């Protein structure tokens, strides 16, 4: 939002923004709202695909006046239709909340290894007091003006305004044609359909609201993108001012993760004014000491898996909220086999040194035997011989972040330091991409940690990478940006334009072909990843070490200690 009251609302921290409307999953109202949200999600996807195909065909430098007039007329007609009164008109208020895409940057002016470390989708929430057609129209009107009416130096690019307008039309059409008639027979407030529209908007909205940066002074800072001001800053380590190497905004409400050689997550007792004491992770791992630097962070969709790229040549994967596995042993032979693979750990826990199958259930290495059920009072391996058979045993991963001793669940190896990583959902699974000093990019299945693909072709270290639904792109010290297929290690494009090391790359999640890159030559370019065409250049006087590209916004962090917000289509700094 570009106007209105800017604040942080407590309900924005709730992981399910539609929880108030779907408290009873069996109710007809819950089914109606969920069906509406799913229908709108499909409509939003179709709109994005339509705009993507439209923008890829626009390669002319200018648009003739008749086309401009026609597009302007259609846009005006759409806005006029949206602004038409339909039901009670409520007060127009907008509140900026902790929502949308948590665009995250990390930079380190001392060591020069900063990069974009993630843009995780936080719980979507468009906080408007009401979403009557008039208010929705006002929201759409606040979007950037149509690019067809702007004299650009490069090819015409589709802006976010068109996408927002299509989403707005889809929401109104759905509510007016389906939701309102369905609710007409119920004794509900007349404003209820408008509230449904508002909830759907909150569910679909993914515009960036917050951005976090990690700096060479050891501070992590969180900024309000709409207001253009800092909300809060936290120090990673009060005993040291070591430069931060990576940061991540967690989808679990107001939580910021910062790293140097170790990692810490920062919570708030009262957001954003009263931070609580930070908690540690990635500390005490075997082979991970002060010589290590965590160069990147990524988190899974459910927020229960955290990946850390390390300069010791591996990626450490952590888990939270690990499930408890219950097995039943009925024979002395099974008990003896269990005793053989158990070991006492540093915290007097009994854990498995290798995988074992008990009672028809496969238990993985590093699962701990819990002192509950039949094992209450079991302190050593010898105590297992005293169990009354059949016995029920409970196991859980020993290093669970939320209920364990913070130990890595998986270790994904490279042949040299890992400089970058990115995590994305593909179908029903999630996959992790890592880039290394060994000149390769590797794709891992997050579920079981097996290596899926290895991408080779760079002649120097891979310093940065980015991924969206269509492409994988990597930047290297060989001054090239390579665009790859995701389903197999095949090169799509080799982009050349930087005269020095490529420091950061960023793909847009909505306009899939848009790719931004930054290099040590102080240049930032916008590319068409599909055609290889260079579309824009964003002027900087110093090295840009981190980028985030989201629809009509490009965020860049430079060594001149400034974080800039750019209008993607016009290359103008806001």
Describe the structure.
- With 574 residues, the chain is of the alpha+beta class.
- 18% of the residues lie in helices and 34% in strands.
- It is built from six helices and 40 strands.
- It has a five-stranded mixed sheet, with no helix packed on it. A five-stranded antiparallel sheet has the order 17-23-22-19-18.
- Helix 1 runs antiparallel to helix 4, helix 2 runs antiparallel to helix 3 and helix 4 runs antiparallel to helix 5.
- The longest helix is centred in the N-terminal third of the chain and has 29 residues.
- The N terminus is likely disordered.
Helix-strand layout with pairing:
Blueprint: E1 5-6, H1 28-56, H2 65-83, E2 95-96, E3 101-105, E4 116-121, H3 133-141, H4 160-183, H5 192-204, E5 210-214, E6 219-224, E7 229-235, E8 246-249, E9 256-259, E10 263-266, E11 268-270, E12 274-275, E13 279-281, E14 294-299, E15 305-310, E16 314-319, E17 325-329, H6 332-341, E18 342-344, E19 350-352, E20 356-358, E21 361-363, E22 367-369, E23 391-397, E24 410-413, E25 418-426, E26 429-436, E27 440-445, E28 451-456, E29 462-467, E30 472-476, E31 480-484, E32 491-496, E33 502-507, E34 514-519, E35 523-528, E36 534-539, E37 544-550, E38 553-558, E39 563-567, E40 572-573
Parallel strand pairs: 1-2, 3-5
Antiparallel strand pairs: 3-4, 5-6, 6-7, 8-9, 9-10, 10-13, 11-12, 14-15, 15-16, 16-24, 17-23, 18-19, 19-22, 20-21, 22-23, 25-26, 26-27, 27-28, 29-30, 30-31, 31-32, 33-34, 34-35, 35-36, 37-38, 38-39, 39-40
